[in-house]
Amino acid sequence: MLTRITGLHHVTSMAADARQNNDFFTGKLGLRRVKKTVNFDDPGVYHLYYGDEAGTPGTVMTYFPFPHMMQGRPGVGEVGETQFSVPKGALPFWRERLAAEKVAGLEQDVTFGAKRLRFRGPDGDGFALIEADDDARTPWTGAGIGDAEAIRGFAGARLRLRDTGAMAELLGFMGYQKAGAEGDVTRYVIGNGNGADTIDLELLPEAPLARQGAGSVHHIAFAVPDRAAQLEVRKALMDTGHQVTPVIDRDYFWAIYFRTPGGVLFEVATNEPGFDRDEDTAHLGEALKLPGRYEPYRQRIEEQLEPLDP
Fold first, then answer.
1. Tell me: the pLDDT tens digits for 70-79?
2. Does the pLDDT at position 136 exceed 80?
3. Strands across the sheet with 78-87, in order?
4. Which residues contact 182 (CB under 8 A, 6 or more apart)?
5. Beta strands 60-65 and 126-132, pairing class
6. φ, ψ for residue 224, nearest 5 deg
7. In this structure, what are the phi and psi dihedrals at residue 54, rounded to the nearest 5 degrees?
8. Are 60 and 137 a contacting pair, CB within 8 Å?
9. Is 219:260 a contact under the CB 8 Å cutoff?
10. Would you call 38 exposed, middle or buried from its count of C-beta atoms within 10 A (0-12, 13-18, 19+)?
11. pLDDT tens digits for 200-229?
12. Euclidean distance between CA atoms 243 and 139, whole angstroms
């Protein structure tokens, strides 16, 4: 069993409009844009990161906004719900705020003993705010959202699968323990984690396969402290038969990727070096930062990208 994974690092999704995406996360949800850069494989497309003040692992939602991208189709083999942690008692504030902002899909319930407010992003993305009374992480506040209501970071994520057996085995190997079940959903929790500690597996044996597009999660990333821990995890995964990529430098973390038995793309990312490697923390997300190989083409790239701020 692996012992170096500490919970989620980030979740990366796709969108159809960069400015709309930026407005939703910084305006409606009140997260901080901690990095404005570009897709490593397509520099004409932004890669946007939203999180707490420093972009702490376990708080960061990231997006590739491909202009006019086709809508994704929900189904199995994907992350169906990304879950954020908010303080206990905060959901009435959020329900009123999101309703006033005409956010779609508002639905409140109780799951695994905690109050949950589900909603949809601008591309149909599945999200939930989950109340927690023991989340000590310091939030980013602003956009009319105070400390008593602000998002602390991820609580976890829900994966939709036709068969959960192989995924449950993989999560156990990654250090997660079964914490309970409600209907067709089984919860797994990692001990002594970073706050983004839970993975829910939803069994949907008759559901169609998901089709990726705007509103789909591209991959979900798990956090390890450093590159040495990442290499340990990579070797252990490969020793158990997983096909794992070489280590890839993503400027703000190092990453490895592998496809899980249920079809979901997993990443394991390092906490180092962090988003302040090329910007002062006070000014994160303000300037367009480019991977070194694209810097000679900055003018052309900037002309292609839609301005995000008024």
1. 999 999 999 9
2. yes
3. 107-111, 114-120, 126-132, 78-87, 153-161, 198-203, 185-190, 176-182
4. 111, 112
5. unpaired
6. -130, 155
7. -105, 0
8. no
9. no
10. buried
11. 999 999 999 999 999 999 999 999 999 999
12. 37
- C-alpha count within 13 angstroms, C-beta hemisphere, residue 151: 33
Angstrom distance (rounded) from CA 195 to CA 197: 5
For residue 222 the two structure tokens come to: 């798990």
**Distances in Å between the alpha carbon of 181 and those of 112, 188, 189, 198, 222?**
8, 9, 12, 13, 22
Q: Under DSSP, is residue 227 helix (H, G, I), strand (E, B) or coil?
A: helix
| Average pLDDT value for residue range 134-160 | 97
Give the mean pLDDT of the chain: 97
Structure tokens at 239: 């020793």
* pLDDT computed for residue 309 by the predictor: 83
Radius of gyration of the chain (CA): 18
Domain ranges of the chain: 8-304
Token output for 301:
């790239």
CA 204 to the chain's CA centroid: 22
| Structural contact between residues 24 and 18, judged by C-beta atoms closer than 8 angstroms | no
pLDDT band at 139 (very low <50, low <70, confident <90, very high): very high
Q: Is 0.90 topped by the overall pTM?
A: yes
8-304 has CATH 3.40.50.720 classification: no
Please name which of 161, 304, 89 lies closest in space to residue 171, comparing C-alpha atoms: 161
- Residue 81 CA to residue 107 CA, distance in Å, equals 13
Buried b (16+ CB within 10 A) or exposed e, 221-257: bbbbeeeebbeebbebbeeeebebeeeeebbbbbbbb
